[in-house]
Amino acid sequence: MQTRTRFAPSPTGYMHLGNLRTALYTYLYARRTGGKFILRIEDTDQEREVPGAIDVIYNSLNIAGLSHDEGPDVGGPVGPYIQSQRKDSYLPYAKQLVESGHAYYCFCTKERLDAAREAAEKKGETFRYDKHCLHLSKEEIQEKLDAGVPWVIRQNIPTEGKAGFDDVIYGRVEVDCDTLDDNVLIKADGLPTYNFANVIDDHLMGITHVMRGNEYLSSAPKYNLLYEALGWTPPTYVHLTPVMVDAPVLGPDGRPELDAEGNPVTAKRKMSKRKGDPSFEDLLAQGYLTEAVINYLVLLGWSPRGEREFYTLKELEEVFDLEGLSKSPSVFDIQKLNWFNAEYIRKLSPERYLELTTPWMAKALDPEKFDFKRLAELLQGRTEVFNQLPGMIAFLAEQPEYSNDLYVNKKQKSTPESAKAALQAALPLLEGIGEWTEAELHDRVMEAIPGLGMKNGQFLWPLRIAISGQQSTPGGAFEIAYLLGREETLRRLKAAIEKL
Ligand code: GLU
């Protein structure tokens, strides 16, 4: 049988990294097994609807390279692929379940339910619907329907016994039926709940493997009861362990809590956009490369055989398997992602690097005034994330305030005094340079240093600080002098001497 997997996001307006990882695994499994990858939009919760949110899904999948074989925009044999457009497909199945006794009409008012919920909470119990309407007679039901009393349809969960299912990651999952609630299948607005729609759609769409977050693990036994009641074979379930972050714990005042030593207390929690964790779009906007994010994400919860860490999407399509999926939660580590990103940045061609970073460099520097190509060459090997670039090069546009203490460097045998001597010697030397190129700067300075009775470091270390205002820079003194140009270099040099 051909594999059919689906990614079934709700349009929230952003792509949660955990969701993107689900999409990725779902896509890869379909590709690896020569199957079909289906996109289904789950928008039955109309209250949560965010305008433009479906486009965010298309865009994110497109950028990530996860092309779907069937979906709202590309069509397919089992459409429509947007749940709100399928709204008429669900009620007949719900009625079938009512007929067979696996579901029932419920006319309870919001007031009655709220009161019952409150009473349960007061007793410290989880609210479960008390099957009040299960005992209505056929006639009573018909009367209410005819009178236009608002209704929902609820699943009739057995009061005893067990419900369960088999999961690829979690194995056999079983719960006592009396712990399950008679969930609503069809809401008062006539639309199905997620709990119902996912079962009907997965079946009608011929889905063979359901991969999704483990937040659905506890509901899946109920879904299996529905499959059984409808006489359908359930799909293979793969509930993925969550993506966590190790985040600072906030105190009641909203500030990070500190331990006895004054270090922030951290705890693992699920990643959450609302708590400020980045979405896929956020990462791209910050200047992460798609390929790096994908590569990092795939390994966050899945291990290939062997030690290899770098994979293109194409390569993953060949090797991804369910056996490598992790059984324990994974922790999103931004440092590790930065490392991946830096590796991918290093592998870019110089031309591509320049193209991608020009807008970032232009945030700090005027492209008319600075040699971006040269800057790009100097920066490529030290870039982790593009959004760090403006900060790394801002000193070229405006020299930061700096302290003469920066000149102190034991290894270079540099002190403020030796720095002053070096800079005083450097000034006429640089003023005398005709052609302001890195090569000229290098050759003239290097041939002069021995005559000054100084070590290279003793001369070059202060020179770099004098013209940059900082100890660490992309490129050394010659590169910076070249980038700044003659006039600005000499101006900064004179000011530095005066300051010493
Ligand atoms: N619409 C659900 C969500 O966005 C999908 C759950 C599923 O894949 O079954 O979380």
Please describe the topology of this protein.
Blueprint: E1 4-7, H1 17-32, E2 36-39, H2 53-64, H3 90-99, E3 103-106, H4 110-122, H5 138-146, E4 152-155, E5 162-167, E6 171-176, E7 184-186, H6 194-204, E8 209-213, H7 220-230, E9 236-240, E10 243-248, E11 266-270, H8 280-286, H9 290-299, H10 313-319, E12 330-332, H11 334-346, H12 350-361, H13 372-379, H14 389-397, H15 416-431, H16 438-448, H17 456-468, H18 477-484, H19 486-499
Parallel strand pairs: 1-2, 8-9, 10-12
Antiparallel strand pairs: 3-4, 4-7, 5-6, 10-11
Helix pairs in contact: 1-10, 9-11, 12-13, 15-17, 15-19, 16-18, 17-18, 17-19, 18-19
The chain binds glutamic acid.
Total strand count, please? 12
CATH superfamily of the domain at 90-206 and 220-240: Glutamyl-tRNA Synthetase, Domain 3
Percentage of residues in DSSP E strands: 5-15%
* Separation, N- and C-terminal Cα atoms: 79 Å
Silhouette: elongated
Main beta sheet: strand number and arrangement?
Answer: 3 strands, antiparallel
Bound molecules: glutamic acid
Oligomerization status of the protein chains: single chain
**Under the CATH scheme, which class of the domain at 90-206 and 220-240?**
Alpha Beta
- Rg from C-alpha positions? 32 Å
* Main sheet strand line-up: 3-4-7
Q: So, CATH architecture of the domain at 90-206 and 220-240? A: Alpha-Beta Complex
Assign the structural class, choosing from mainly alpha, mainly beta, alpha/beta, alpha+beta, or little secondary structure: alpha/beta
Total count of helical runs of at least 4 residues: 19
